[in-house]
Amino acid sequence: MTQETKMKRIWHYLKSPSSAGLWLILALGFTGGVIFWGGFNTALEVTNTEEFCIGCHEMEDNVYEEYKETIHYSNRSGVRATCPDCHVPKKWTHKIVRKIAASKEVWGMLTGLIDTREKFQNHRRELAEREWKRMKDNDSEECRNCHNFEYMDFSEQGNRSVKMHSNALASGEKTCIDCHKGIAHELPDMKGIENW
Amino acid sequence: MKILSLIMIVLGMAVSGSSIAQDQEEFNSGGLETIRGATNIDETRKAEALKRVHKDRNPIARNYVHQPPVVPHQTRGYRVDKNSNKCLTCHGWKYAAETGATKVSLTHFETRDGKVLSDVSPRRYFCSQCHVTQADARPLVENTFKPVDSLMNND
């Protein structure tokens, strides 16, 4: 049998009424896929909101309360950075990786790892270090989603900002999180951390 | 007995009620005036507009020799607590060269009885106890203090 006749026979079969079952399966599979994919991403989006992030008291009573006093909660322009803006990558693949890592945090919540202020403070150093490392590794990508070095107007910035931004930042020697630790929350004991 | 105490309560209320009514007529400052102006006690003064803190400028001249220099930049969000000291990340000796900030002076390493420590002394740890930011506010009262000649450098 040649290649051509094989194709013809398949085509013939697909056109015949006896193929209806196959079509049905294909159609169901396709719509099911669309629905699942949509639902998956929608569910993912729900977990990507501030309400979700502060849905547990561990976050609401600790980091959220502290964040409310900072520039990213209230400022002259009224533009806010919410939890996922800083903590969840925008790129889909990175986001999935972060979300899978987050399942560990859900476990922590279920087992009450940080369910009091005191326990939270005791664990804060390791939690913070994980975020610093993540941001260091991705060159503070989340910060740069909003703050683009290219568009920083040095004539509008303070002397101290200009000095630091035009040296260590411009040369790529340092990234935002190297200098701006504690931008949204209180800090853990900083003993031994570089530059503190 | 019960009736007596009831009468007492009613009488007490009547007396205090009338004294409140009386006080209301006399609610005034009694001619007292503060540098913020005179206000009757039962009135709430309209708050002054908030003043802006200087964002960043060159050091401000000192007025006398042992004056703690005032802070020429804003310090919003700079935490100083047992975990961390934001001021020292620039003013500490290790970082001053890199950040261009003035090093804390040697006196900051000394204890009350003159012992020199290897790091900032606890009594000098909470910087804003002595160093304060400046706002664009006019002084409330005239001040004719003049710094000594040798300190009239910048500004």
Q: Can you offer a commentary on this structure?
A:
- The complex is a heterodimer of chains A (196) and B (155).
- Chain A is an all-alpha fold and 196 residues long.
- Helices cover 62% and strands 0% of the residues of chain A.
- Chain A has two domains: 1-46; 54-179, no CATH class.
- Chain A is built from ten helices and no strands.
- With 155 residues, chain B is mostly helical.
- The longest helix of chain B has 25 residues, at 2-26.
- Chain B is extended.
SSE topology:
The complex is a heterodimer of chains A (196) and B (155).
Chain A: H1 3-15, H2 20-46, H3 50-53, H4 57-67, H5 83-87, H6 92-110, H7 117-137, H8 141-146, H9 159-169, H10 176-179
Chain B: H1 2-26, H2 88-91, H3 93-99
Overall strand count of chain B: 0
Which percent range describes the beta-strand content of chain B? under 5%
Question: From the structure provided, what is the oligomeric state, counting identical versus distinct chains?
Answer: heterodimer
Kindly provide the radius of gyration of chain A, computed on alpha-carbon positions and rounded to a whole number of angstroms.
Answer: 25 Å
Tell me the β content of chain A: under 5%
Number of domains of chain B: 2
Summarize the structure.
Chain A is mainly alpha-helical and 196 residues long.
Q: Could you list some keywords that capture this structure?
A:
heterodimer; A: 196 residues; mainly alpha; 10 helices; 0% strand; B: 155 residues; Flavocytochrome C3, Chain A, domain 2
